[in-house]
Design brief:
The structure holds 2 protein chains of 2 kinds. Chain A is mainly β. The interface between A and B is medium-sized, with 20 and 24 residues.
Chain lengths: ~110, ~110
């Protein structure tokens, strides 16, 4: 079991560029989440999904879009990156126990 | 909006000292409570969780936490810390089996 994997691990973008972060899990979990982690602010929920084909907004959704076309994948898109989106992005998934399993994170810098 | 507060941002202890990290949450209906740990260079992993029953829950590596409903608190404790406990600790609350909210984290530095 690979658990939760994230691609890429690091990325540097220029302001206005777009990119997609991929989260994949092999545990057949229904629930998947995208968070951002900023110094002194902990993790903040961006978007989440309660099953294939569903998505919902979290605490800080502006500037991001998501898709869950396949149960095992949850994509996070930035259409026009801004310096305020410089952060570490974590994906997580869980099943009925609500114990979240986290990926290793993607460190994104927007210049 | 719901919120989770961790008042200790950075704690420094010597080995064998006792640890207590505070966590308070805002009222918002049904809550389930978690503590996660992030060791240097690793991703977050679950220490313990509370859903119902005995408000004193025990987790991995000798950690425990007490849910005090009247105080909206879920403090993490360990009687004797080790150098290997150096990490960042996050309290998290699941409101109404819907959204997770995390605290800002507490960095623990244990001196050998």
């Amino acid at each position: 079991n690979a658990g939760v994997t994230q691609t890429p691990k690091f990325r540097v973008l220029k302001t206005g560029q777009s990119m997609t972060l991929l989260c994949a899990q092999d545990m057949n979990h229904e629930y998947m989440y995208w968070y951002r982690q900023d110094p002194g602010m902990g993790l903040r929920l961006i978007h989440y999904s309660v099953g294939e084909g569903t998505t919902a907004k979290g605490e800080v959704p502006d500037g991001y879009n998501v898709s869950r076309l396949k149960k095992q994948n949850f994509l996070l898109g930035l259409e026009s990156a801004a310096p305020s989106q410089t952060s570490v992005y974590f994906c997580a998934s869980h099943q009925d126990s609500y114990e979240q399993y986290f990926g290793p994170g993607t460190r994104l810098t927007v210049t | 909006a719901q919120s989770v507060s961790q008042h200790n941002h950075h704690v420094i202890l010597s080995e064998a000292a006792s640890l207590e990290l505070g966590c308070n949450y805002s009222y918002g209906g049904t809550v389930n409570l978690f503590w996660y740990v992030q060791y240097p260079g690793q991703h977050l992993q679950l220490l313990l969780k509370y859903f119902s029953g005995d408000p004193l829950v025990k987790g991995i590596k000798g950690f425990e936490a007490e849910f005090i409903k009247s105080k909206f608190s879920f403090n993490l404790r360990k009687p004797s810390v080790q150098w290997s406990d150096t990490a960042e600790y996050f309290c998290a609350v699941l409101y109404n089996f819907n959204k997770f909210y995390f605290g800002s984290g507490t960095k623990l530095n244990v001196k050998p």
